[in-house]
Write a structure and sequence with these properties.
By secondary structure, the chain is of the alpha/beta class. The protein has 2 domains: about 5-165 and about 200-225, Rossmann fold (3-Layer(aba) Sandwich); about 170-200 and about 230-295, UDP-galactose 4-epimerase, domain 1, CATH 3.90.25. About 40% of the residues lie in helices and about 20% in strands. The strands form 3 sheets. A 7-stranded parallel β-sheet has the order 3-2-1-4-5-6-10, sandwiched between helices. A 3-stranded mixed β-sheet has the order 7-9-11. A two-stranded parallel sheet has the order 8-12. Strand 4 (about 65-70), helix 3 (about 85-95) and strand 5 (about 105-110) form a beta-alpha-beta unit. The N and C termini lie far apart (about 40 Å).
């Protein structure tokens, strides 16, 4: 199996690349990235430019599976409506799909739960009504991939990823890595409001396993949400982090009167097709905490 992975230098893409090389052999994996890497052959692109030399085109023509993980991803909620980055998702996907993949059998697209309207729980049947430009760009790219697959008479698989955590997440300004950084650096962490809002997380290794397991899925399976099944309140999550740290940590109460929303998912379909076992939250938090501690 010859696989091409876009976004191969990102949080998820880099882990996918390592796993794909281990599974299929580095000689059968091509990275599509803004950065070169030592694990396998890399086609390096610069921004919107996809200038591919003759050796790269030979690799492209041999590719059987494209895993499209590369995208502009907001590092915080404030970035979810940055039009330049969101439109780049669409233009980059278009240029990717226009490449001469003469041996292509399947396209796997890593989308996002940001395509859904608020619901509880969120399932694959939840209404798609993106509240942000980022969500709209991901939904648009889903449709582009589906149309391309139909034109080529090949299969495609849409995977909508939820909140992925684990080593490497510190690249993003999200709640979990920020809380870990506060515990490591200040021996205190902020709790906004009562912390009753629910979150469901999925560990990075479970995401990688699910993506690679989707290779070869038959047509007609439909969208699969790659999400965690265990909902935990923000307060409970902080308590678990503090326990993992084994430190005396002050919980600083902060007033919060903004909108509250639970993120709860049904991952029955994920477990039926792609993932037989989820990493337990305590083990995953320990791995991320230890990773960030080493970076201090």
């Amino acid at each position: 199996m010859k696989v091409l992975i876009t976004g191969a230098s990102g949080f998820i893409g880099s882990r996918l690349l390592a796993a794909a090389c281990a599974t299929y052999g580095s000689e059968n994996v091509t990275a599509f990235s803004s950065l070169a890497n030592a694990e396998c052959y890399t086609i390096v692109y610069n921004g919107d430019e996809l200038r591919i030399d003759s050796a790269g085109l030979v690799r492209i023509r041999a590719v059987e599976v494209v895993i499209h993980a590369g995208a502009y991803t907001p590092k915080s909620s404030a970035d979810a409506n940055v039009s330049l980055g969101c439109t780049a998702n669409i233009s980059f996907t278009q240029r990717l799909l226009e490449l001469p993949f003469s041996s292509l059998k399947q396209i796997i697209y890593l989308s996002s739960l940001d395509v859904y309207a608020p619901a509880e729980p969120i399932t694959e049947e939840t209404l798609t009504l993106p509240p942000t430009l980022y969500g709209l760009s991901k939904l648009y790219c889903e449709r582009m991939v589906a149309l391309c697959a139909a034109e080529r008479n090949i299969t495609h698989q849409i995977l909508r990823l939820g909140h992925v955590y684990g080593p490497g997440e510190e690249k993003y300004g999200k709640f979990l890595p920020k809380a870990i950084a506060d515990i490591l650096g200040h021996d205190s962490v902020e709790l906004w409001g009562d912390g009753a809002e629910l979150r469901s997380l999925i560990y990075i290794d479970d995401v990688v396993e699910s993506v690679l397991a989707s290779i070869g899925l038959p047509a007609g399976v439909g969208v699969i949400n790659v999400v965690g099944s265990c909902a935990i309140s923000i307060r409970q999550l902080l308590d678990q982090l503090i326990a993992v740290s084994a430190k005396r940590v002050e919980l600083v109460a902060m007033e919060f009167d903004g909108p509250r929303r639970n993120y709860v998912f049904d991952n029955t379909k994920l477990k039926s097709y792609l993932l037989t076992h989820e990493t337990d939250l305590s083990s995953g938090l320990r791995a991320e905490y230890d990773h960030m501690a080493k970076l201090q």
